[in-house]
Amino acid sequence: MEDDEEYVEIDIKKIITKLLDDLKLEYHIKGEQLNGCCPFHDDKHPSFGINFETGLYNCFSCEAHGDIASFLSKMECIPRSEALEKLGFPRMSADYRYTLKDYAEEKNLSVETLKHYRLSSSEQGIEIPYYDESMRYLGRRFRHAPNHEPRFSWEKGSTTTLYGTWFCNNASDKYVVLVEGESDCHCAWTNEIVALGVPRCYQLQKRIC
Ligand SMILES: [Zn+2]
């Protein structure tokens, strides 16, 4: 590890349970998973869940979802950049540019591999192109800087499909793993696992989640 490497340790369990306790919301914890009543809507039946390991939360009822920074920003009505600072991340300037290198470090992948998956850096963050199985361009999704809200957006006029159909169209593949979003695909592909990603808006559109 390099001396100047920034590493922020976040006690997600402590943060979440404190916020839920303050709101007197019921929950139970099993291993790294907490399930309970959702803090974002008037929840009669527990429909909220958060995983302490990934920091990702999801409500099956009101469809609130995101990472720990988005949770904090929503709970405390503060901008995402402020939530990140509260979590201990260093302040990012407004003109901070999120690049392939940042994404590669975040996901422990190589920039070369990401380029092979046709990702690129741009003014808006990183660009993730979508193609159909015959490599016809359908549009692209932007993954913005961590302090940018929203974290993801679509290029205007994009058509969505499962992510990676162009990459996994080998008829000899016996099975395909369905994962959530593009980054899980990038990690799976790197480990030679055939995977297709379901982008969030596609999940909502098709009601398959
Ligand atoms: Zn909810």
> Which radius of gyration do the C-alpha atoms yield?
18 Å
The total of beta strands comes to 11
From the N-terminal CA to the C-terminal CA, the straight-line distance is 39 Å
Total domain units = 2
Q: Please tell me the overall pLDDT.
A: 85
- The parts where pLDDT drops under 50 for at least 5 residues are 1-5, 203-209
Small-molecule components bound? zinc ion
Number of helices: 7
Instruction: Indicate the structural class.
Output: alpha+beta
Strand order of the largest sheet: 1-2-3-4-5
> How can the largest sheet be summarized?
5 strands, antiparallel
User: What is the H-and-E element order?
Assistant: HEEEEEHHHHEEEEEHEH
Q: Please estimate the helix content.
A: 25-40%
In terms of DSSP E residues, the strand content is 15-25%
Shape: globular
Overview of this structure, please?
The chain is an alpha+beta fold. The chain has two domains: 12-86, DNA Primase, Chain A; 100-206, no CATH class. The protein has seven helices and eleven strands. It has helices at 12-22, 68-75, 80-86, 100-107, 111-116, 181-190, 200-206; strands at residues 27-30, 33-36, 48-51, 57-59, 65-66, 120-122, 125-131, 137-143, 152-154, 177-179, 195-197. The strands form three sheets. It has a five-stranded antiparallel sheet with strand order 1-2-3-4-5, with helices on one face. Helix 2 packs across helix 3. The longest helix is centred in the first third of the chain and has 11 residues, at 12-22. The protein is globular. Residues 1-5 and 203-209 have low confidence and may be disordered. The structure holds zinc ion. Zinc ion (ZN) is lined by residues 38, 40-41, 43, 47-48, 59, 61-62, 64. Residues 38, 40-41, 43, 47-48, 59, 61-62, 64 line the site of zinc ion (ZN).
